[in-house]
Design a protein that fits this description.
This protein is of the alpha+beta class and 175 residues long. It has helices at 6-9, 113-123, 163-174; strands at 2-4, 16-21, 26-29, 32-35, 41-48, 53-67, 74-88, 106-107, 110-112.
């Protein structure tokens, strides 16, 4: 959704309020497709901040289905967007100068609201998603979900790159 900022930047500097209702049924991020569960509505406010500066703030929340990082079972995760930015809009259609990421969503007086939301969503994406704190993951031999039961695979032992450390521990036991 492209919004024109000329009413915010020109006299009488009227603030702008935009409601973005995400129409897609999924979010594409980090090379994956994550289904949305429920509505994804974000409120954006843009206000004049002097010169060619505008203040942009927004709030919203959504639920997405993301696979657990250990066992790959789907986890419904609620995430929140809450941001405030001060950006500079160049009159000649050039890029702003205050933030390097505004290049993505402001061009001249045109403001791409959905691009800003995508940027904020990626910044706020959780580092690790777990179905539970004691998730046991999957067997690295057969792929069995170890939360559902054990498998009959042989233990593969330590990673061969760790053999030096194993030798050090063996030497401590001998002393």
């Amino acid at each position: 959704m492209i919004v024109n900022l000329s009413s915010v930047l020109s006299e009488p500097h009227q603030p702008l309020r935009v409601t973005v209702d995400w129409k897609d049924d999924e979010i594409v991020a980090f090379g994956g497709h994550f289904p949305l569960r429920g509505p994804f509505v974000t409120e954006i406010q843009v206000a004049y901040d002097g010169g060619h500066d505008v203040s942009i703030s927004g709030k919203g929340s959504f639920k997405a289905e993301i696979p657990c990082d250990r066992c790959l079972e789907p986890v419904e995760k609620e995430m929140f967007l809450d941001f405030q930015k001060k950006v500079t809009v160049s009159k000649d259609g050039g890029k702003g100068t205050e933030d390097s990421d505004e290049i993505n969503y402001i061009e001249g007086y045109n403001f791409d609201v959905e691009q800003l939301i995508c940027n904020e969503l990626l910044v706020g994406w959780p580092m690790k998603i777990l179905c539970s704190d004691n998730c046991r993951g999957i067997c690295n031999v057969c792929g069995q979900n170890l939360n559902e039961g054990v498998c009959d695979c042989e233990s593969t032992g330590l990673d061969p790159r760790m053999s030096v450390i194993q030798d050090v521990f063996k030497n401590f036991k001998e002393v």
